[in-house]
Amino acid sequence: MHDGKYGWHKMSDERCAMSRYVLRAKLFLGLYLFSFGLAYGGGIQAAETSLPEQLTYKISYQGIFSGFIHLDIARADLRVAEGTVNVSGRVAKVATLKVTTEPYRKAEVLFPVRYQYRSWYEPDGENALLVTESLQVDENSDEMIWFDRDEGVGHRYEVKAAATGGGKRPPLELLRKFADLQVWPAVLEESHQQGIGSGEMFDHFSMMQRLRVLDLQPGQVLDLPVFTGKQLKNYRVVVTSESIEGKTEESALLKLQIFSYDAAENDAGQKTYIWLSADDRRVPLRFYAERAFGYLEAVLESGESGGESRGGFTPATNAFEQLDAFYF
């Protein structure tokens, strides 16, 4: 049955559950899957990484679960805190991403989402140190990823309802970091361990920060290793430039095409696109991911980056097509 006012179909419990799963996956992909490179050709502007930042995005979806109607479904708030903290004896910056469907009634009724992703990463080099994730939907899910740089090992921990007896507990210092999520788990056990080496290694957010301190140029192709908590992945980034209709050439945006890439198998994953401002702040303006069940888009609405206010970014949108122009 079709709800003409909102364009949504009333779905069975099974299809509703499927839509929640699909949308969650797309939310995460579009918002923090920022892949940046090892084989970069530009210099690093390290002074910029110390500046605080707070940005707000509006997330939209169009596809089979919305009756092919373009709908705003969630708000995302991204904050990079001022100053540094200590993680396992290393200096770290802290960034937090929060996603909620609360401002959008229809999405809140069908699949309420509360999600928080927090990343601790080195301000010099942007290597990941620690990640905590909390997802509240039908069932809650909380986990931690520890990048043990001294031992070259990545650890993934999950909150368990009861101790299984087989998983190790994280160091107490890291457990206190996890308490920042307002979740003090009775049992937090290791669910996966993997060697990550002593070289560069990133989580999804620290990848974005890595890109933003590089002097990227159109034509570059970049590769970067990422530990997801479950596996090591290589992400490839193709850098291009895209002009804004009615604006000068100097206001062109950097456009990134991002996908997982296995060189041995010559296998490329599905693509996500990110547009960055071409100034020295490299502010993420728009994220776009298209899949068989529709597209997800996040657009910067307002915020402050390095003391500079930003807002009013509203791209023209068209389902299932990659846009060539922005309209302000």
Shape: globular
Number of domains: 1
> Helicity level, as a percent range?
10-25%
Low-confidence region ranges? 1-47, 312-328
Query: Structural class of the helix and strand makeup?
Result: mainly beta
Radius of gyration: 20 Å
What proportion of the residues form beta strands (DSSP E)? 35-45%
Organism: endosymbiont of Escarpia spicata
Protein name: DUF3108 domain-containing protein
InterPro entries: DUF3108
Pfam families: DUF3108
List the helices and strands and how they pair.
Blueprint: E1 2-3, E2 8-9, H1 13-32, E3 53-63, E4 71-80, E5 85-87, E6 90-100, H2 105-110, E7 114-121, E8 128-136, E9 140-148, E10 153-159, H3 172-178, E11 188-195, H4 204-212, E12 221-227, E13 232-242, E14 253-262, E15 267-268, E16 272-276, E17 284-291, E18 294-305, E19 308-311
Antiparallel strand pairs: 1-2, 3-4, 3-18, 4-6, 5-6, 6-7, 7-8, 8-9, 9-10, 10-11, 12-13, 13-14, 14-15, 14-16, 16-17, 17-18, 18-19
Report on the structure:
This is DUF3108 domain-containing protein. InterPro entries: DUF3108. It is globular and about 60 Å long. It has one domain (2-310). Mean pLDDT is 75; it is low at 1-47 and 312-328. It contains four helices and 19 strands. The strands form two sheets. It has a 17-stranded antiparallel beta sheet that branches. Strands 1-2 form a two-stranded antiparallel sheet. By secondary structure, the protein is mainly beta.
